[in-house]
């Protein structure tokens, strides 16, 4: 079996280290692995699955002979290095938002639009974490009844802002406990015991960047340019797993029992909806794993008979970022190996 | 000026002690004050505004010569004592849900439906906290454009479950810090660093009691029996102040600028909506005061041009419970004093 040279760009961050972990868990055929970081982290090591890996500085020469780049870098770093990697012949799966809406860059969730991955020109974009979690949950329902409108309120964990988000929540809880002043840096305000209804900058219409991603990326992934989306994104003092309260309106009626059956068979989904036993998804139970948990499924009590309400949670560092990127790479590797065995 | 004999039933709980505080702050004409509790708290004292008050056990004789009862007791205690108080001639303002939907019991938010208070037969009900906060925020918009449909996702503080909710969050944070086992009692699961999408018991359609209150109480307060409500209620690890993400659909179009002007003049509201300076309501900034803060006001980007999105926060122990009850009593006292001066 062919093995591949793989680079992780931004390898020392929350998503980058998770990409490494998922890669090792999945036992993909890796020949050479390069963990690329800024100069600051270069030379440092990381232990994972009883192995020690060393970070090296990303330079313009880092992508020579690389087959796949999993990029967990911020937009500016992504834009600096990704074109170089593509020029060297690598296929890049990019978790930043730099290329997501470009016409010639597929935006892929393997459970939702896997075929789009094969139409790439060197770059495949990994969608926004909250968007991935919502669309994995909705895909089986959309396939049956066609989505028309979404009203989404999110409850997003601090690790969406990376390791520094987790550290900031910890530091603030500790500061409050010892009556020390609160320091804010990853978030605009104190997040411990608080909520911040802003994720990203606001546009002129008063929507935050994260809220517009749900609309714009959702439309592209589902190939529904008219999909109506109303989204409110809120940071909550939870370490890991984003949660979302979703009202989904469909083109045709879909009753809750049918919906539950569809979700039970859905790809990447764990239906957890047993109200008698108080079973519903919660961030604590859905962290450190790859499924999107769906529950609280019920008929919309307001005007729209074609609508359902649901609540979903998913680990946004894994399925919302690292796992989704590695799954995309897996799709391409599988297809190549199938093509070879057919030839 | 006439002064009144007032009893607080359930006086030692989070809402009861807050009722006492609001009563003292407002300098209402109190002649005699009885702080009624269970046998367990009787004899204990509480310091407030440099005075010491002693709790006494609620008995069937506690309401003799009482003009107003502010009841912060649970439903079962409310049902046991309130009929006795009414029989003695007292007017009871009840914060439990026991009588809220009874036809002959007005359900009152002074900023929304003050006149209803005067149609009582001895009992006036104080609405559910999340419902009060939503409707105070929406009232100026409803007066202008008439509400038709609400989609609400709540972010509800632990103090909604009383003092034991606050204690449980504190204890769990401390247990996690010292790697001790987590104890749950006020909430069905760990609330520290978690979210629980259940407040109250579920009905057959899969809605929690708190979610149905938003619909049923909202319809009664606004006198809109057809008001369509889709609500999801979630407990969050915040001490105080409930927050709500609301999509409101109206009978006629209402643009965000008009809405902001209406909210600026709205009763009981603080508009906080200056995105350039990252100003929006957050639970930390809205606790320990009586206004409902409203921000993130924007046009619905999805199908409905008659719809607006907004985010609001309010202290659910004060405006969501104690303050609202005392305000209702104030309405009645004021009316009586005006009637007298006219006579």
CATH topology of the largest domain in chain A: Dihydrodipicolinate Reductase, domain 2
Q: Name the shape of chain A in a single word.
A: globular
Helix content of chain A: 25-40%
Radius of gyration of chain A: 20 Å
- Per DSSP E runs of 2 or more residues, the count of β-strands of chain A stands at 13
Largest beta-sheet characterization of chain A: 7 strands, mixed
CATH homologous superfamily heading of the largest domain in chain A? Dihydrodipicolinate Reductase, domain 2
* First-to-last CA distance of chain A: 14 Å
| Unreliably modeled segments of chain A | none
CATH uppermost class of the largest domain in chain A: Alpha Beta
Alpha plus pi helix count of chain A: 8
Structural class of chain A: alpha/beta
CATH architecture of the largest domain in chain A: 2-Layer Sandwich
How many discrete domains of chain A? Answer: 2
Chain-averaged pLDDT of chain A: 96
Strand order of the largest sheet of chain A: 3-4-2-1-5-6-7
Order of SSEs of chain A, N→C?
A: EHEEEEHEEHEHHEEHEHEEH
Largest interface: A-B, 57 and 57 residues
Task: Please provide a written account of the structure.
2 copies of one chain form a homodimer. Chain A has 343 residues and is of the alpha/beta class. The first copy, chain A, folds into 2 domains: 4-126 and 321-342, NAD(P)-binding Rossmann-like Domain (Rossmann fold, 3-Layer(aba) Sandwich); 131-316, Dihydrodipicolinate Reductase, domain 2, CATH 3.30.360. Chain A has 8 helices and 13 strands. Chain A has helices spanning 14-25, 75-87, 129-145, 163-177, 209-222, 256-264, 283-286, 318-342; strands at residues 4-9, 30-37, 45-48, 51-57, 68-71, 91-94, 123-125, 147-155, 228-232, 242-250, 269-271, 292-299, 307-314. In chain A, the strands form 2 sheets. Chain A has a 7-stranded mixed β-sheet with strand order 3-4-2-1-5-6-7, sandwiched between helices. In chain A, helix 1 (14-25) crosses helix 8 (318-342) and helix 3 (129-145) packs across helix 8. The first copy, chain A, starts with a strand and ends with a helix. The model of chain A has no long low-confidence stretch (mean pLDDT 96). At the A-B interface, strand 8, helix 4, strand 9, strand 10 and strand 12 of A face strand 8, helix 4, strand 9, strand 10 and strand 12 of B.
């Amino acid at each position: 079996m062919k093995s591949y040279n793989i680079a992780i760009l931004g390898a020392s961050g929350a998503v980058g280290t998770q990409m490494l972990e998922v890669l090792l868990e999945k036992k993909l055929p890796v020949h050479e692995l390069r963990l690329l970081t800024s100069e600051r982290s270069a030379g440092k090591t990381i232990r994972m699955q009883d192995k020690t890996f060393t970070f090296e500085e990303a330079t313009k020469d880092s992508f020579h002979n690389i087959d796949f780049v999993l990029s967990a870098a911020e937009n500016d770093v992504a834009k600096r290095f990704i074109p170089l990697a593509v020029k060297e012949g690598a296929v890049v799966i990019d978790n930043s938002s730099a290329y997501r809406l470009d016409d010639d860059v597929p935006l892929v969730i393997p459970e939702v639009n896997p075929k789009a991955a094969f139409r790439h020109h060197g770059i495949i974009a990994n969608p926004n974490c909250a968007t991935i979690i919502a669309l994995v949950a909705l895909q089986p329902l959309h396939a049956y009844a066609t989505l028309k409108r979404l009203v989404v309120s999110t409850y997003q964990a601090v690790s969406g802002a990376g390791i520094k988000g987790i550290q900031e929540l910890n530091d603030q809880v500790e500061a409050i406990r010892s009556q020390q002043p609160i320091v804010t840096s990853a978030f605009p305000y104190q997040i411990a015991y608080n909520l911040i209804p802003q994720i990203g900058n606001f546009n002129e219409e008063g929507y935050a960047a994260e809220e517009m991603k749900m609309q714009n990326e959702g439309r592209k992934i589902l190939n529904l340019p008219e999909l109506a989306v109303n989204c409110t994104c809120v940071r909550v003092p939870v370490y890991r797993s984003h949660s979302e309260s979703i009202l989904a309106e469909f083109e045709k009626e879909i009753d809750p029992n049918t919906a539950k059956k569809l979700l039970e068979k859905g790809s990447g989904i764990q239906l957890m909806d047993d109200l008698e036993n108080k079973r519903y998804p919660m961030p604590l139970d859905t962290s450190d794993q790859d499924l999107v948990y769906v529950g609280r499924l019920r008929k919309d009590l307001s005007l729209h008979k074609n609508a359902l309400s649901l609540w979903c949670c998913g680990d946004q560092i894994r399925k919302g970022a690292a796992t989704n990127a590695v799954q995309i790479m897996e799709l391409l590797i599988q297809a190549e190996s199938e093509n070879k065995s057919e030839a």
